[in-house]
Amino acid sequence: MKNPHVLIGVCAPLSGLAASLGKEMKQAIDLAVQRRNREGGLAGHEIEVITYDDGSDVGKAGTAATELTRNAAVLGVIGHYSSDTSLAAARIYEKAGLSLVAPIASNPSLTESGIKGIFRYTNRDDKTAKAIANYLFYQRGKRRAILVATDSPYGNSMSSAFEQAFTQLGGTLVRTFSVRQGEKDFRYLVHQFPDDFDLLFYGGTFEGAPLLNHLRSGGYDQLMATGDGCWDKVNFLYPASASLEKGEGVVVLSASAAVGDVEGSAVFAEAYTSTYGEIINYALNSYDCANILFQAIEDAARSAQDNLPDRNAVRQALQQVKFRGIANGNPAVWDEKGDNQGAITKLYEAGKGQFVEIR
After folding, report:
1. Which of 19, 321, 340, 342 is the most buried (most CB within 10 A)?
2. Paired residues of 45 in beta bridges
3. How far is CA 304 from the centre of its chain?
4. CB-CB contact of 202 with 237 (8 Å)
C-alpha cells in the first residue's frame, strides 16, 4: 500500500538558547507546507512533516538524524540551525542516502568535509567575512581591531575567517578574546581593552547585545562589526537598543536579503507575521529551502513508477535544482561540494528597531 503522504524531516532547536531561532525556522517551513498542500501537494500526495528538537545539541541532533533515517518514507531533511549539529547529523544522513537542505548553517567545514548529500543555501563564513573585512578596511578605514569570539563552532568559524581576511588586507589584531556562550556581563572584558584600536569585531550570536552595551557604557566609541549571528531582532537589535546609535555605530552582515528586497518576500512576510508574529532572523531562507526540497521531490517523482521517488532520486534531483526564491534574487545552483553558488552577502547599519542596508 502506498504511503498517502510525502514525508520530510525538519530538525531545529525548539528549546534552549536558540529556541526563538529554531521555532521561526520551523514556522516558515510550516507555511511552505501549508501553501503547497493547498495547491495539491507533491505528485498528488499531501506533504507531512516529522519534526525533531535538537536543542542545538550535537548528541540530540545525532539521535534525531538516526530516527529520521529509520523511517524509509522520509525523502529529505531541512535543518539543522547550527553548523555543528548539521555536520553531526549529515554524517548519519549520508549513510542512509538522505539529503540535508541547510537554510542557515554557515561554517565552511559543513561542505568541506566531503560528506555527500548536503545542500547549503546560505553563504559561508569565509566568504561573508571577506565581504565585511573589505568594507571595514577600504570604506571605513579600519586598521586595528579587537576580536571577540564566542566559544561556539559558529563563533570560532566567523571570527577566524574575519581574522584571516582582515589581516590579509593589512589590518592588525590588537587583542583577541574568547567568551562563553550565554555570558551577559562583559564589564570585566571591556576593562581589558587597550586604547589603540579602531574596531571591535564580534563573532557569535547571543552575547553581541550585552557586549555592545558594556562597550558603550565603558566609554568606547569605536565601531562594532559582527557576523550574521547578530542579524537578529530578538537576540541583538532590541536588547542592544540605544547603544546601537552611540559612537560610530554597528555594522552587521547578513546572508539573506531583507523583507521586501526580492519579489514575493513581502507577501510571505505578511502571511508569517499574521500567523506567528514578527520575523526576527532567517525565515526567508527556511521558506526557500522547503520549496527547494519540494521542487526536487516533484522533479524526481516524474520518473518514479509508483509516483513517489526514492531518496537517491531526490538527491540527484536536488543536485540539478535551479531555484529562485524570496531570500535571494539569485537562483540557487549547487557546486560539487553542495554550496550555493548564488549565495549572497548584505551589510547593514544597526539602528533602533531596524537594520538599514549599506548600499
Report:
1. 340
2. 42
3. 33
4. no
Closest of 82, 86, 81, 89 to residue 64, by C-alpha:
89
- Amino acid identity, position 321: V
Summarised one tens digit per residue, pLDDT across range 30-73 is 999 999 999 999 988 999 999 999 999 999 999 999 999 999 99
Closest CA to 352 of 209, 226, 184, 223: 209
- Does pTM surpass 0.90? yes
User: In whole angstroms, what is the distance from residue 75 CA to residue 176 CA?
Assistant: 44
Model confidence at 128: pLDDT above 70? yes
Q: CA–CA separation, 200 vs 204, rounded Å?
A: 13
- Per DSSP bridges, beta strands 346-351 and 250-254 are antiparallel
Q: For the residues of 124-156, what is the DSSP string, one character each?
A: PHHHHHHHHHHIIIIIS---EEEEEEESSHHHH
Query: What distances in angstroms separate CA 21 from CA 53, 54, 64, 233, 347, one per listed residue?
Result: 12, 12, 18, 10, 20
> Nearest CA to 212 among 181, 186, 191, 188?
186
Domains, the chain, in order of start with CATH, read: 5-123+261-320 (3.40.50.2300), 125-254 (3.40.50.2300)
CA angle 29, 263, 274 (to 5 degrees): 50
